[in-house]
Design brief:
The chain is an alpha+beta fold and 457 residues long. It contains 16 helices and 20 strands.
């Protein structure tokens, strides 16, 4: 399985090199390329580099790193979306720097960080969505918790590696400002104005536009030992489990309640939609990382039902009726990510909950850690991963790479192969099948684009 995943990664990568080299993404059906902006920023090479390194693809990694360091420049008169640029490019450069020690990658990361800093110059400290990399001008004052609160892992790591506190301080303030505007019952909404601090959409959930805000509250506590993030995470997860968790008695037995997370109004907690989808499937991994293995296992079982019901997961479903709300599959990695996390814990058991607690120890007597009883067997999670990989190859492989699906019902493909296929989907499939020593899970925190960051400071 490990060899197969590596081979499919190379198959897709060669398609990219053949038709889209020097550009952001491959368009696999038309055999052409797509750039996010007027000038390319090498999204796919930067996103793919640390995966190549972990897979042991030394020649490809060396050549790709050389191309990035010689050709990537951020001195471009273009407006870019700070969130996507941060998680993909800043996160990718920092992770690859830690894996290689190539200081040119760190220099690129610092240059990018400097160019992104103007986004934080709003009256509230919440970041604007777009910034011009050359002029520093910003635009779009409407943002969401994910885009405002999914910056501290990357900016914080840049701060620690360059010893420049400004990066940490600006990104942390943005995270705190979202938290400060939670409702009296502890929930956040979907859209907020960065200049007034007023919510413009009060729908609350764990899906896209909010998802990684919660992920980073937990992960910034773990990576930086930040006790403010710990407190914000604990407050937030209590509200999530109170108002967004939804137990469904589909079998007519209280012993077989399905666990889902739906939508609710942020101010009242009233359920507004019983919808869940591919982006929500990251949450079992976060629950497991926090130590809540019971909910992690139950929610993972629901995600797997969703995948099996349609042969591959749709973007969004109504979990009460099984109707498809949004039928596409854009090669999402989140369900594979959660499978990897749960397989790890079912194999080796949990780590201590903070960097300070886990330094120099593997936990337990003689290095042994008890496996959580709430989880299924490691073999069952491995089997889930293998099943998903077979479906993934069956429905998404093309003549020159992999393509997203317009609909999981018809399995019709669309002309898109986003860079996160290399950064996340292939990486998590690979790590699920690879020996544990391939990457020390206990010593890294993955950013939301699956770039592993180590606490080296």
């Amino acid at each position: 399985m490990q060899a197969r995943v590596r081979a499919e990664f190379l198959y897709a990568w060669r398609g990219y090199k053949k038709y889209a080299w020097g550009h952001d993404d491959l368009k696999p059906l038309s055999k052409s390329y797509h750039d996010w902006y007027a000038q390319p920023l090498l999204m796919t090479p930067v996103d793919a580099l640390d995966t190549m390194i972990l897979m042991g693809l030394k020649d490809e990694a060396t050549n790709t790193r050389k191309y990035i360091t010689q050709n990537l420049s951020f001195d471009k008169d273009i407006y870019v979306q700070n969130f996507e640029i941060t998680i993909r490019l800043l996160g990718g450069l920092l992770s690859s720097y830690q894996l290689t020690g190539d200081r040119r990658l760190l220099s690129l990361a610092e240059d990018l960080g400097n160019r992104l800093l103007p986004i934080f110059e709003s009256p509230t400290g919440l970041p604007y969505r777009f910034v011009n990399l050359k002029t520093g001008k910003v635009r779009d004052a409407k943002t969401n918790p994910a885009e405002a609160g999914t910056l501290l892992l990357e900016f914080g790591t840049l701060s620690k590696l360059t010893r420049r506190p400004v990066f940490y301080e600006k990104a942390k303030r943005a995270l705190v400002e979202i938290y400060k505007r939670r409702s009296p019952i502890g929930l956040v909404g979907t859209w907020i104005n960065v200049e007034t601090g007023e919510w413009t959409n009060t729908d609350s959930h764990i899906s896209g536009a909010i998802d990684s805000y919660y992920e980073y509250l937990l992960k910034c506590w773990l990576l930086f030992d930040d006790q403010d993030c710990r407190r914000m995470w604990l407050d937030s997860i209590a509200a999530i489990n109170t108002y967004l968790a939804d137990e469904l008695d589909r079998q007519g037995s209280r012993y077989e309640l399905e666990l889902w997370y739906g939508h609710a109004d942020m101010n009242t907690g009233v359920r507004t939609a019983p919808t869940y989808g591919a982006l929500d499937a990251f949450f079992p991994a976060v629950l497991a990382l926090s130590g809540d293995f019971d909910r992690a296992a139950r929610l993972q079982a629901s995600s797997q039902k969703m995948w099996r019901h349609y042969g591959i997961e749709p973007e969004e479903i109504n979990y009460q009726t099984w109707d498809v709300v949004s039928p596409g599959y854009p090669l999402r990695p989140e369900i594979v990510e959660s499978t990897y996390y749960l397989h790890h814990y079912a194999t080796l058991g949990p780590r201590p909950p903070s960097p300070a607690m886990r330094r120099g120890t593997r936990g337990g007597k003689g290095g042994q850690r008890p496996v959580p009883k709430q989880l299924a067997s490691a073999a069952s999670y491995l089997e889930q991963g293998h099943m998903m990989f077979e479906d993934f190859v069956k429905y998404c492989r093309t003549d020159e790479g992999y393509a997203a699906l317009k609909s999981v019902l018809t399995k019709e493909k669309s002309d898109s192969m986003p860079s996160f296929l290399f950064a996340e989907t292939f990486k998590y499939f690979y790590l699920l099948s690879a020996p544990p020593q391939t990457l020390d899970f206990d010593k890294v925190i993955f950013n939301t684009e699956a770039h592993p960051i180590r606490r080296t400071w």
